[in-house]
Amino acid sequence: MSDDHVYLTLAEGHEDDTRWAYGTGFEDPLHGVDTTVSEGVDAGELAAECVALADDALVSAQRLAEWVTRAPELEEEVALANIGLDLLGQARLLYSRAGQVDGTGRDEDSYAYFRDAGDFRNVTLAELPGGDFAFAIVRLLVLSSWRLAHFRRLVTHPDPVLAAVAAKGVKELTYHRQYAAEWAVRLGDGTDESHRRMRAALDGVAPYLGELHTAHDARDELADVLRQVTEAAGLPLPVYRPLPGSGRAGEHTEHLAPLLTELQGVARAHPEATW
Q1: Torsions phi, psi of 156, nearest 5?
Q2: pLDDT grade for 5, boundaries at 50, 70 and 90
Q3: Which PANTHER family match (predicted)?
Q4: DSSP assignment, residue 248?
Q5: Residues 18, 247: contact at Cβ < 8 Å?
Q6: DSSP for 172-227?
Q7: Is the pLDDT at 202 greater than 70, yes or no?
Q8: Domain range 38-236+246-269, CATH class
Q9: Rounded to 10 degrees, what is the CA torsion of 48, 51, 53, 56?
Q10: Who has greater pLDDT, 29 or 81?
């Protein structure tokens, strides 16, 4: 399978020429959306889902930000930064919705900056250290494919706000997945060294795939993407070796706390500061 074939297959149904949703259009995705919690929607469950999805996005965005000045090329630095900004935008909308419906009235900063690691509900794959570029690409491929599958389901969620956030996110995540897939094929089918690093990255991600399957039902979609991309790249499919514990239950690796210290340091040192 050629690079172009993977590109076209994964982008099927998304013919918009826009490559990066962030920065190419600033329309408010919630404009005109009724923010009232719909009848039959459990506000507590809705808030919990919004927080978990926002935590995934925020932590992933922070890891992607670490590639600024470190990516192999300037173009890739800009691309990874844009992906991180897309995810940050999703996190902000989701945190705001959680604060509207959970009865606390908290704003997005309260969720992002003033919770400790044990209060975060992101999946553990998102919080792992960046490693090399191959690992960053494999993780991005897995997380964007997994999140995209879930957001496609959420487009029909009975909560109109979550459905609107998902609709915007589907466009963004389609390009995140596409970007990662192209690089995965390029590296896997490249030099002996790039191939070796991609195999190592797949091995590094494999133990965390089981948690994704329990967080929401996207097993088939994720497996299909990984099959397409690894076949095109001449790489083996990762073998699932699930680890105990779950970030969704607040059980995190030792890597999350220092990441949050870096993320939250200024806000906690100057909690009432304004521009």
Answers
A1: -105, 15
A2: low
A3: 1,2-PHENYLACETYL-COA EPOXIDASE, SUBUNIT C, PHENYLACETIC ACID DEGRADATION PROTEIN PAA
A4: G
A5: no
A6: HHHHHHHHHHHHHHHHHTS-HHHHHHHHHHHHHHGGGHHHHHHHSS-HHHHHHHHH
A7: yes
A8: mainly alpha
A9: -130
A10: 81
- Cβ 99 vs Cβ 105: under 8 Å: yes
Beta strands in the chain (DSSP E): none
Q: 141 burial class (0-12, 13-18, 19+ CB within 10 angstroms)?
A: buried
Tell me how far apart the alpha carbons of residues 144 and 151 are, in angstroms, rounded to a whole number: 10
Cβ neighbors of 243 (< 8 A, separation 6 or more) are 124, 207, 208, 210, 211
270 class by beta-carbon count within 10 Å (0-12 exposed, 13-18 middle, 19+ buried): exposed
Name the pTM for this structure. Answer: 0.89
Domain boundaries, the chain: 38-236+246-269
Report residue 257: phi and psi, to 5°. -55, -50
Structure tokens at 176: 């995140």
Identify the helix (H) or strand (E) that includes residue 139: helix 133-154
Task: Please give the pLDDT value at position 27.
Answer: 66
Nearest one of 170, 68, 186 to 137, comparing CA atoms: 186
